[in-house]
Amino acid sequence: MVSLAIPNLKNIWDTWNVRVVVLVSLTLQVILILLAPFRKRTTQREVILSVWVSYLLADWAASFAVGHISNGSKEYDGPCDKEDFLTSVAHFFFSSSKAKVSSCGDKKVALSINSSDLLAFWAPFLLVHLGGPDTITAFALEDNELWLRHLFSLGVQLAVTLYVFWLTLPKNKLLIPTLLMFAAGIIKYIERTYALFLASLNRFRESMLKEPDPGPNYAKLMEEYYSKKEAGLPTHIELTREPDKESKLAANVKEGKLSEVEVVTYAYHYFQIFKGLVVELIFSYRERNESRDFFLNRNAEDALKIIELELNFIYEAFYTKVVVVHSILGYIFRGASILFILVAYGFFYSLDKHGFKKIDIMVTYTLLFGAMCLDLIALIMLIFSDWTVAAINTSWPMGKCIMKIAEEYLKLKRLRWRKVPKMVPESPPLTVEVLGTPCLLRRWSESVSCFNLIAYCLQQRPSADKWRFRRWIEKKIDKIGLGDVVYDLFCPPEIPTKKLPRRLWEIIFDELLEKSKDAADDAETTKRICSARGAYAIQEGYLERDYHTITGDYIDNLAYDESILLWHVATELCFQGDPNKAAHNEENSSYGCCSLWHIATEQIRRLYQWLSGKEKSAANKAISDDDRSLSKLLSDYMMYLLMKQPKMMSAVAGIGKIRFRDTCAETVNFFSRRGIIKRGPKVACDAIRSVDTEVRPVHVKGDRSKSVLFDACMLAKELNKLEEKERWKIIIKVWVEMLSYAASHCRPETHAQQVSKGGQLISFVWLLMAHFGLGEQFQINEGHARAKLIVGK
Hints:
Strand content: under 5%
Mean pLDDT: 81
Shape: globular
Largest sheet: 2 strands, antiparallel
Helix content: 55-70%
């Protein structure tokens, strides 16, 4: 049976491979054009993995099919209509002798002219598929650097397709539609290759460079100066300031809330200026002042909308065809491509199909309808893209009417806030506002990923004898450097995500706004703010006491990665140890669900507070609780960045991985000795705080172990000496400053990498700091740009 099955299977595959792979290639194109935009809207591994697999298979399937079409141009497996295929499949499973094998796979005959013509007609469709959909040209930023390989591949695929077409001459019945599809395929492939070229970092940097500036003609000026001096004329040189050249948009900044179209317009304007951040360009003082003045007059929500759109423009510039398509030449080529496909369909529809196999006709119509549908979807996305809205000119004949339509459309995509309950009944309000834009309409994931060291350690198993073999295996895998890879593949950790709270973004915005005002045009202050990792927030804040112990021992004298670990554990200890919320664990303090009864009781409580005059104290309590829960959220987010985004934090992470492993090892050992593995975080944190920390750990253990567990315990005890409101005010300020430090010091291209994976809050902070003029990428000192030779009488 096996000896009969193998040749039968081979014959069926030889007969149907081209048809199957061509349809698979079309299916992958449909998947990519629909699914690829979702990778910027979610952090889910399943979606990103699906896009990655489809992206890899799409190029393989198209290239594979082109190769098989060229190989099959001389030989053709004869009867291949639907009935023959079903018969061959039946014989494959039920035949008992070679005599019963279907002639569909066994009998070799010369390729018929009609079938050869169809194969030649299919080949250009594969060029269209190799050009890819508009929604994805590159999966990763590094793919753009391979544009030269794609250009070479274009030449090879063109040669193969031309070879297949040449074999059908001069009696090709499908000559005109084949040539039309061939032209459409070339356009698609060139679009993709050119998009990759424009998005490569070197080319992107070159496109941002301005014309060389030789400066004033020094030699000529000095010659004139010397000649006047020799003539005995009183002469001196005056330096005058270069006149400002404000853009029209900057000169007409609107006060108050922005409309949705205005948000897109301003976002596109600042994207064109600040996209150079990705390739570490330096910006002029004029650009800094224009952006800073604009954002100083905006509220937190408008700033969030603008930055969201800027990051969306960055995503589309690096990972889609949008830059190529949104140009005069791009519009012409796109229109020509659509026209070619429609005319090719018309020719094939009107053609006498006598002599063609029914199944081949069905495949051809499927390819034509697929190509038309893909172009229709791409055209709809093109018309309704943010780039199109940004290009609208009100001076057009229908400009104002188009603007109104665009405004109504953009309202569908606007940021939406929804109220979700939080289970902390001691502190009104009962609900908190978080981002809640529907997935189909949002431009990024709108979420903050979390990683908690204490919770992670509570899930670890103690080093009991029954786990020795497993640990031995893990050590062997770690030795060859595959530990993390194997763990992520077979035991992927569940990274909890929470929607971005409005209050958290407002705190970040207000902190950076105040720092921007403090810095003004002072380069030294700006440098000090950008290099601060928590100390500036404590020293310059509205705090009444001297916290030199906290800033010195737990911020200034520590490496950045050590500060994150230490403050993360200390924040968790303070969070779980709050006596007023002792009954509420981490899950209860998150944004979960709540009953209608709970909401009703809360409203009655608030009414009572208002009637009894206790509303003010309740409001202070709510602010403190907001700082408490948001501090924990930021703490968990910074740990997530440090441990789960090592590429993003590599410039500031130091030996964070070693410190984390040592801290985890000490924590797990401590929990196992106390018998609290698998217990709740409240019990675990109480046990840690109960340890006497009168003597610093380094004086007892030495410095070989990099664990910061009990150093964090000491910090938590220092913080717990403060009043609750003041404690959480310090902690939230420190975390915002640590986030700002990471945002301004991590490598810029990592922000461009993250926008294709759902986006990160740190990227929003990075752009917000740039817009506020906080960073080292500005030429802050204006200087004098023009010289005048003044000759006295």
